[in-house]
Amino acid sequence: MPTFTAPDGTELVHRLVGEGEPLLVLPGGPMRASAYLGDLGGLSRHRLLVVLDLRGTGTSGIPADPATYRCDRQVDDVEALRDHLGLDRVDVLAHSAAGDLAILYAARHPQRVRTLTLVTARARALGVDFTAEHRREAAALRAGEPWFGAARDAYEAVLAGTATDAEWDAIDPFFYGRWDAAAQAHAASGSEQTNFEAGEVYASEGAFAPPLARAAVAELDARVLLLAGELDGGPLPRVAATVAGLFPRAELIVQPGAGHYPWLDDPLAFSRTVATFLRG
Questions:
Q1: Residue 187 included in any domain
Q2: Does 83 reside within a domain?
Q3: How many domains does the chain have?
Q4: Distance of CA 129 to CAs 97, 186, 243, 244, 266, Å?
Q5: Model's pTM, two decimal places?
Q6: Which of 56, 79, 188, 241 has the fewest beta carbons closer than 10 A?
Q7: Considering the domain boundaries, does residue 136 fall inside one?
Q8: Which of 268, 258, 241, 204 is nearest to 67 (CA)?
């Protein structure tokens, strides 16, 4: 897979999937190897996905300084990838925790961002996040599911900070619109793909300065898409709407029946939505 060197000398890897104009893709987790994104529900039929393995994940190198796992410190990695690709401006798509990284990149390099697609994305960088009550509200939507009782009890243990590994596993169904074989296989790969040590650093103290980021994105000329899942609690669709309101040129689309991984729940709807937005 193609490699490039970050400003601090760390060797980073990205994979290329599909064809067409490049779309720079940032994985969430936080700090989960990009393999979980697959081809984003066939979005690779519309665009060339340039999918970054963040430092310390997947096949990218481990940095000499673990402090560089912090989200704001990784903005330089994204800019180094843009420069490596030889692109003056980029379309950026970020999932989940990578929403923070993409927002900080757009705030620091607004002239380099043509479009920004935030998929079920966090926005702590802007001072907006989900809460335990948001999680409970979304979980209640699944009360008719056969797995709900055990998963709800496990969720309460997670929210209380007392969960066992088994209880962490038991809440996985809440993150998918359909708890089928594909979703179960996808969930099972999560632990082995994630750098948990790096994830602890990602949003640590000093990573975010919301007033500065809000002021920067308020002047952002790029078009922005917030794609939320109807059943997702992180963020709820109304929280995603709040984030959209912080950008001058943003739109919110809520994918029906989708959880935190909408490209798995309805690949065709997801890829069509994003491709249509990117075409403008």
A1: no
A2: yes
A3: 1
A4: 11, 25, 9, 13, 25
A5: 0.97
A6: 188
A7: no
A8: 204
